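Quick one, T. Sequence first:
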Amino acid sequence: MRKLKTSRQPEILDAALAIADERGLDALSMRAVAERVGVTPMALYGYFRNKDELLDGLVGRLLTKLVAEDAERIGPGLEGAWNERLGAIAWATRRLAREHPSVFPLLLSRPSVTPDGVRVVDLLYQALIEAGVPDADVPRIERMVSTFVIGFAISEVNGRFSGGSNETRTRRGVDAPAHRRLAGHLAARDWDAEFAADLADLMRIIRPV
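Structure tokens:
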């Protein structure tokens, strides 16, 4: 077993991410990560005191990947319009869900408390401030936008948007008059187009034209 150097925290988080991608979050443990990295479990506790801290680190790692993979449109200090930057973050978030479907739900269940996570939230705050949102409303609007984007992405990768849901209700004899009325609109959708339309609606809520 080798000792971890101070620069190895990203290695630990990448190992944790790989385990969760391969076997799901339930398989993630300090021991499993230590084995993947090649150290004793005790060696990890200098970086993460427990599994909760490890999960918080994973949230930060995911958000770091989000920015790194689309830095030209998301990174701090860019001059693009506020709505373009918010849109870029939203599309990158949806892509991240597809790449890491087992780990992605952490973004909805855990706060962004690591430096990497806080930086991404700060980018959202900056865009909303530039949109003219009053300071007192920025945190609330950020939560609304983030909850929609993350929720849409999770629903998509976990199959909640499956076209079979309406057929299942029909087979079970559920009396659903609104479903009958909307039958022609409930088939499989173009989720890219729907996501784009939803984002456009959100932008109009943030700053009406």
